[in-house]
Design a protein that fits this description.
The complex is a heterodimer of chains A (about 90) and B (about 575).
Chain A lengths: L1 E6 L8 H11 L5 E6 L2 E4 L3 H5 L8 E7 L3 H13 L9
Antiparallel strand pairs in A: 1-4, 2-3, 2-4
Helix pairs in contact in A: 1-3
Chain B lengths: L7 E4 L1 E4 L2 E9 L16 H29 L2 H14 L2 H14 L3 H17 L4 H22 L14 E4 L4 H9 L4 E4 L7 H8 L4 E3 L4 H4 L5 E5 L4 E4 L3 H10 L5 H7 L16 E6 L4 H8 L4 E5 L1 H7 L5 H15 L4 E4 L26 H7 L1 H14 L5 E5 L5 H20 L9 E6 L2 H5 L1 H5 L4 E4 L1 H8 L18 H16 L4 E3 L9 H8 L3 E4 L1 H10 L5 H13 L3 H15 L1
Parallel strand pairs in B: 3-4, 4-5, 5-6, 9-10, 9-16, 10-11, 11-12, 12-13, 13-14, 14-15, 15-16
Antiparallel strand pairs in B: 1-8, 2-6, 3-7, 7-8
Helix pairs in contact in B: 1-2, 1-5, 2-5, 3-4, 4-5, 10-22, 13-15, 15-16, 21-23
The chains are: A alpha+beta (about 90), B alpha/beta (about 575).
């Protein structure tokens, strides 16, 4: 099992589009993926779970990956969150 | 029959533009009644199967909605249904629901709705509108699935009479698509913001929409006569007969889409009675069915307002994303020109959560090019995207709110810098792209001779020019009599602008409300305006009027009007002429 703490940096937080992107990425891996925010832990392959984290800008998330491709999965998902889901950080 | 109720004006938020009138049809939400039904262990298998079937059927529906949406509306908006599809198809969530059904021994609908409610509770509490929007998305899906499980019908929007104004607490994106098929005239809701998914779809489909009117669905009764103003965000219940007739006379009630579908534009471009071609173009907001219509009629785009890109996404898309969008518009309308205006955002249009943006007087504040200068990366990304989309040679760039030559020079430096970067990365663009400015700040009109030497064209924003010249907020009802672009002082500024342009051999367009106004058209033609760019809903009437006007008469009209001293005299004179040709 590997884990990493990341910060949500895009201004609008993990709204519908970033949530969908996260789930699409997570579902590519065989490993189990979880996201933890302030003690609440949800399955990273469940869009309802990810949406209901209500992760606004600045929120700290702990990403967990567990399985044969856990390292790649964690790297990919970390990049996704820390790149702001491709959304500009303006304003 | 209009007198049966008292006139009331309700104020909300303008979510999709357009002025319309009609009879209200209030649609009440169907509260789903979900019983806490207990099951026996040997019924578990049956409940799980019912759930699977309800999900499968909903997925089929969403799939076809997704397809029909992608045919009718632009990519990003159609993606709303894609995320709804993902929500319905959430295997992890369904696995948990099934486990709970088996352990609690309760019916599928009860457990499903319980778990959805538990999941969305934290989102509901969020103060962020984008977080709350997800509740709407999740509930749209869960209601769909629950209806299947309880056997309750969806509310009957499909059976409602055509061409009504629909009023409700809120409508789902799917319902808006359905209303569009029923030729809805306008949508009015209690809930929802201007960036809600419902509003985005309404804008794409050109349905005038006002949202966020407190208790709209309780204050308005089915059968009430309504005037809906999607530009100002107001709804008038039981308007006076005068107002009713006035709006009807404006004939704006039929949306651009319907008008152009019903009636082919008479010859385009329109030609005056003495055979002078008049350049008429359309104002444009977002891709949608309007593209096909404009392209079929060979109407170019005189003003592409890019603000909606920000308003729809709540963020500035990357250079590449903007390029793809502008390029697709430029391609669809090629070889006709597409004039793309850089963001004209003011603090009134920004995301409500940006509380530091609040200004007491946003129209006189941080907006247009001023805001762009303060966000140099945003501005440069947009400039580069517009330049890249110009590679076919049919794109022009328009800068809003330029007040003087210093601002123009500053914008010029940024544009040159952007061009240099594109050359360095070997990206093609039109090296002779025409760059023009809006004339909407009175200082720019007064100094038009200085500015005309440095730009390829002018575009007069008559709405802002009027509000700034007459110090009259265009949205303030109490000033409606004062706010009028036909005021002699505004006309003087327009005349100065045209003279400066003619001296420098550059064209001048008008792209405010005035350019589609039947009274103003002959005057503007006579004054020497080179292009009239108007909302598509105005095209039909304008193109019918122009062939009745003689260019030589229009010139005389302009001369005569220049001698008149009051707004009243000018309006009277133009009305007289209008009646003589109509």
């Amino acid at each position: 099992m590997v884990q990493k703490t990341v910060k949500v940096i895009n201004r609008l937080g993990m709204h519908a589009r970033p949530s969908a992107m996260f789930v699409n990425h997570a579902s590519r891996y065989k490993s189990e993926i979880f996201i933890e925010k302030a003690g609440l832990k949800v399955n990273g392959k469940s869009i309802i779970g990810v949406m209901t984290l209500a992760a606004e800008m600045g929120a700290e998330l702990i990403l967990h990956a567990d399985g044969i491709d856990e390292k790649e999965a964690l790297r990919d998902l970390t990049n996704l969150v820390t790149s702001g889901f491709g959304e500009l950080k303006n304003l | 029959m209009i007198a049966r109720g008292r006139k009331t004006i309700l104020r909300g938020l303008p979510a999709a533009p357009g002025l319309t009138l009609g009879e209200a049809r209030v649609v009440y939400s169907l509260e789903q009644t979900i019983e806490e039904r207990v099951i026996t262990p040997d019924q578990v298998e049956h409940e799980l199967m019912r759930l699977d079937m309800a999900v499968a059927e909903s997925l089929t529906e969403l799939e076809s909605l997704k397809e029909s949406a992608s045919r009718k509306i632009s990519g990003p908006v159609a993606r709303i249904f894609e995320s709804q599809f993902m929500i319905a198809d959430d295997r992890e969530f369904l696995k948990n629901v099934k486990a709970e059904i088996a352990s609690q021994l309760k019916a599928a609908e009860y457990i499903y709705s319980l778990m959805v409610e538990k999941a969305v509770a934290p989102l509901r509490a969020s103060r962020d509108q984008y977080m709350r929007q997800m509740v709407v998305d999740i509930e749209a899906v869960s209601n769909r699935i629950l209806r299947r499980l309880t056997g309750q019908a969806a509310r009957h929007i499909g059976q409602a009479p055509q061409e009504s104004i629909f009023v409700g607490k809120i409508f789902s994106p799917a319902e808006v698509m359905n209303l569009y098929e029923r030729k809805v005239r306008a949508i009015v809701t209690t809930a929802g913001g201007v960036n809600s998914h419902m509003a985005l779809i309404a804008r794409s489909l050109l349905i005038p929409t006002v949202v966020g009117i407190p208790q709209a669905h309780l204050k308005i009764m089915s059968g009430d006569r309504l005037i809906v103003d999607g530009d100002k965000g107001t709804v008038t219940i039981n308007p006076s007969l005068d107002e009713w007739n006035q709006v009807r006379k404006k004939k704006a009630r039929v949306t651009a889409l319907q008008i152009l579908k019903l009636d082919k534009l008479p010859d385009f471009p329109p030609r005056t009675a003495d055979n002078i071609d008049i350049d008429v173009a359309a104002n444009y907001d977002v891709p949608g069915p309007i593209d096909r219509i404009l392209a079929d009629h060979k109407v170019g785009i005189g003003l592409y307002r890019t603000e909606f890109i920000y308003l729809q996404n709540g963020r500035f898309p990357s250079e590449d994303d903007q390029y793809r969008l502008y390029n697709s518009v430029a391609k669809v309308h090629y070889p006709r020109p597409v004039t793309i205006r850089t963001f004209d955002l003011g603090s009134d249009k920004y995301h409500p959560s940006d509380s530091n943006m609040k200004e007491n007087n946003p129209a006189l504040g941080w907006r247009g090019i001023r805001a762009s200068f303060d966000m140099p990366n945003v501005f440069k990304d947009q400039v580069k995207a517009i330049l890249r989309a110009s590679k076919r040679g049919n794109v022009k760039m328009l800068l809003p709110m330029i007040a003087d030559i210093t601002e123009l020079r500053k914008a010029g430096r940024i544009i040159r810098h952007a061009m240099a970067e594109l050359r360095k990365s070997n990206l093609p663009f039109d090296r002779n792209i025409q760059i023009g400015i809006m004339i909407e700040v009175p200082s720019a009109a007064v100094a038009a001779d200085i500015l005309a030497e440095k730009v390829s064209f002018f575009s007069i924003g008559s709405n802002d020019l009027t509000q700034y010249t007459l110090a009259a907020d265009r949205d303030n009802q109490k000033l409606a009599k004062i706010f009028n672009p036909l005021h002699p002082a505004v006309l003087r500024l327009i005349r100065m602008t045209i003279e400066a342009a003619q001296k420098n051999n550059i064209p001048v367009a008008v792209c405010g409300e005035m350019s589609g106004d039947i009274l103003s058209i002959p005057l503007l033609i006579g004054m020497g305006i080179s292009q009239l760019s108007m909302n598509p809903s105005r095209l039909y009437n304008a193109c019918r009027l122009i062939p009745k006007i003689k260019y030589s008469d229009a010139v005389k009209i302009a001369k005569e009007v220049s001698r008149l001293k009051t707004l009243k005299e000018i309006e009277g004179f133009l009305l007289n002429y209008n009646m003589s040709v109509e």
